[in-house]
Each structure stands twice: as structure tokens, then as C-alpha cells.
Amino acid sequence: MKNRSNLDKFSLWLLAWPIFIEVFLQTLLGTVDTLMVSRISDDAVAVVGFSNQLFNALTTLFITIAGGAGILIAQKLGSKRTEDARTIAVIAVKASGMIGLLISIVLYLQPHFIARLLNLPEHLLPLSDTYISIAGGGMVLSALMAALSTVIRNTGNTRGPMYTAVGINIIHVLLNYGFIFGAFGFPQWGLTGVSISTLVSRLLAVLLLFYMFIHSFERKVGLADIRLKDSKLFKEVLRIGWPLGVNMSCWVFSQLVIYTFLATLGTKELAARTYMNTLESFCFMLGYAFALAAQIQIAHLYGAKRTKEAYKSAYKALYVGLIVVSFNALLLYLLGKRLLGLFTDDKEIIAMGISLLALNFLLQPGKMINMALGNALNAVGDTRYMMVISIASMGIVATGCSYLFGIHLGWGLIGIYCCMIADEYVRGFLVFIRWRDRKVLRKIEASQGDSLSGQQVHAVRGVRLEA
């Protein structure tokens, strides 16, 4: 009964629905941020969008550890090595926290230099100094949130991070409303208040996640575990994690570079892309939930050497995801003008956004292929392949072609967006071919065959000795 209960915990749907709600609420958090900040000014929106791209880029530095650890935790639990899973979890949280602290110090001390380095328009620098120093100074909290959520989720407990997301969303919305509009007796601090609201929400989330983390394994995590070390297991984390980190950083840094291209086009293009980022998130979040759930399930099945089930799980997530994201993209296009009108009254920005929403219908299926099958390859540890194709496609197609067509040839925002679509489909085709070939899964199947042959030889020898 216990084994059956453990298997049920790692079923695709039971893993996916809490992830969906968590992602939905996080997306809602971003939407509320953008919507409320838009009441300050379109310039403030541009700064928040630009700064968040920077934060996402820096996030990859600690996601390298957390992502690799999450995959290994699910694999170790699948192979019944629970103490190894626990050790990996503790090491990952410590390492991510230390990296996050270093990033926080740099962002707090040098916001102006960083904004100038990334070509932010001159008139936006005062706002960026405020937002980057305060919100960026809390990156250590983002690092701990990422590590703790990943660990907890990969033990099969996807509900815990979901409940946390519910709580911080409510708190964040209330604090935002208070600081921006001067409600509930709060001072009307504008973008500074939004930054403080973000910090407070993240701090409360970290406290809740720490409590769940302590009780996530058979043996409770305590203060004595701060000294816990295991170089062999940490090398395993890095073996999977560093290519995963490079893969993720390729996407984030390509987006950051593209934002610098947009900054040269103008503030309106930058604001339009920021609004589109918010709306796009609602398209793929359910598909992403299935893709992430599939990664956890596949890693668990891979650890248990149940390769056939692992192979089919990726396609199941892909098929469901394609239907969902395509429907969402169509719905978003039909309602696009009204939705964009919630954020801004600028007709030029709205016109740009509507054009991008039409192209978004082409973007989302390609993105879903990457999410489902890319996560499946990550789950079985094939992260180096993902790294190689990401460096090539994102460097040449997404970034290089965006400059060529969007800036050099003067196609502007539409040209850049088309290059992003092309990148998704190039990578999508490559991950599909890789997963279909089952290269990593065949190695496990071969090792199982060798093990079975060895057992048969020993059995025959035993029979001969008895005879």
C-alpha cells in the first residue's frame, strides 16, 4: 500500500494541477505588478520589465544548482536512495543562498552602473536606480525561494509551493495597492513601494518554504545539517546542473540582449514587449505545468528504471499542452485589444501589442514542444545536448537574427518577434529528434539487460553446482 501511495504521488495530473495554480498565481502576481505600475507611468512599466529581464538573467546562476539538484532528488527517490536525496537538497539550498547573497550585494551597490551598461535610456535611469537597488537587493530571497520550491516539488509535494504562492499573491497585491495609491494608511511611495512590497512578499514565502523543507524527508532537516557535505553528490548535481544552467542562461541572456535592442528602438517598443510578456505568460502556463510535472515524473521513473513509462509520459504532456496553449493563444488574440487597454491608453503601444498577439499564435506551439520534450531530456540527465542546441539556436537565430532583421534591416519589433518564433521551432525540432531516438533511455535498458544476463548465468552455475 505504501509503494502504491508513493506511485500515486508522482502521477502526472496530481503533480501538474498544483504547479498550474502556483504558476498561474505567480503570473497573476506579475500581471498585477504591471497593471498597478502602469498607473504610475509607461516609463515605470518599461523599467520594471527591463529590470525583471536582468533579474531573470542573474537567476540562472543559482538555478544551475537548484535545477540539477531537483532532477537528482527525483531520481534518487525513484531508486529508493532517500538519504542521498536529502543530502542533495541541503547542499543545494546552501549553495543557492550563497550565490543569491553575492548577487544581492552587487545589485544593491551598483544599480546605476548596471543600467547604463545595458543601454537603458537616460531618462529611465532614476527609476531604474530605485527598482534595481531595492528589488535586486533581495535576490538572495529569490535564490532561496527557487531552491526550496524546487526541492519540495521534486519530492512529489507540489501542493506546498502552491499554497505559498496563494499567500504571497494576496499579500503582494494588498501591499502594492497600499504603496501605489496610499491606501490602508500606507505612504504613497510609487515604484519604491512596489519594490518594498516585492521584498516583504518574498521574505514571507521563504519562511513558509523553509518550514516545508525541514519536513520534506523521512529524517527531519535540522541546524546540524548546515555542515553537511558530500563532494561526490555535489559533483553529480554539477554534472547535470551546469549544462542546465547554461541552457537556461542562454534563453534569459538572449532575452536580455533583445531587450537592449528594443531599448534602442524606443520606450514604446520596450513597454509593448513588457505588456506582451505578461499576456503571453497566460498562454503557456498550463502547458508549462504539465511539462514540469512530466519532468518530475520522468526523473522518478528513470531512477526506478521504468524507461517505457518515462518515454510515453513526455508525449502525454506534449499532446495535452499543445491543445491548451493553442486554444489560449487564440483566445488571447480575440480579446487582445481589450486586455491591452487595461494596461495603457497609448494607441501606438496597443497597435504594436495586437500585431504581436497574432504572431503569438505561431509562437506558443513551438514553445510547448521545447518545454515538454526539453524537460524530458533534462529529467534523464541529457542536459549537455540541451545546452549545445541552446547556445547555437539562441545565439544565431534568436539574438543574431533579431539584430540583423530587427535593427540592421529596420524590421523593428515585428522582425525581432519573428526571429524568436524561428528559434523556438529550430530547438523544438532538435529536441523532438533526440527524444524520439531514446539515446539515454536505451543505455538504461541495455544495463538492465546485462544485469539480467548476469543473474541468469549465476542461476545456471548454481544449478550445475547442485547437480
TrEMBL record:
Keywords: Cell membrane, Membrane, Transmembrane, Transmembrane helix, Transport. It is a multi-pass membrane protein. Coiled coil: none annotated. GO terms for cellular component: plasma membrane. Pfam families: MatE (PF01554). It is found in: Cell membrane. GO terms for molecular function: antiporter activity; xenobiotic transmembrane transporter activity. InterPro entries: MATE_fam (IPR002528), MdtK-like (IPR048279), YsiQ (IPR047135). PANTHER family: MULTIDRUG AND TOXIN EFFLUX PROTEIN MATE FAMILY, NA+ DRIVEN MULTIDRUG EFFLUX PUMP. This is MATE family efflux transporter. It comes from Paenibacillus baekrokdamisoli. The lineage of its organism: Bacteria, Bacillati, Bacillota, Bacilli, Bacillales.
